[in-house]
Specification:
This protein is an all-beta fold. It is built from no helices and 11 strands. Strand 5 and strand 6 (57-59) form a beta hairpin.
Length: 120
């Protein structure tokens, strides 16, 4: 069984910064792509950023230049550094991993979600 645990969310003023972390634990043979998604109030879940095992990254246009995704393969952890936060960044943030629990199969796992609120 694999679990993803997120941390680092909270309330921040506009222009502030937060760093989200998501650590995977359990039966892990290998991790591939990792990513962050978010669901603003009353809206659908949307992509924020992804990072491949090769460290190639992809960002949504709305966060380019403000957010940075990174990973630590030894710790099975993905990070999201969020700078210059705006009220429009308010959402529940979810991490997403592609994990091989063994050498034969891979699955997609989601974190439980963590609230980020940007407000004065």
């Amino acid at each position: 069984q694999v679990q993803l645990v997120e941390s680092g969310g909270g309330l921040v003023q506009p222009g502030g910064s937060l760093r989200l972390s998501c650590a995977a634990s359990g039966s892990i043979f290998r991790t591939d792509a990792m990513g962050w998604y978010r669901q603003p109030p009353g809206k659908q879940r949307e992509l924020v950023a992804t990072i491949a095992r090769s460290d190639i990254t992809n960002y949504a246009d709305a966060v380019k230049g403000r957010f940075t995704i990174s990973r630590d393969n030894a710790k099975n952890t993905v990070y999201l550094q969020m700078n210059s936060l705006e009220p429009e960044d308010t959402a529940v943030y979810y991490c997403n991993f592609i994990i091989w629990p063994n050498s034969s199969i891979f699955r997609t796992y989601w974190g439980q979600g963590i609230q980020v609120t940007v407000s004065s």
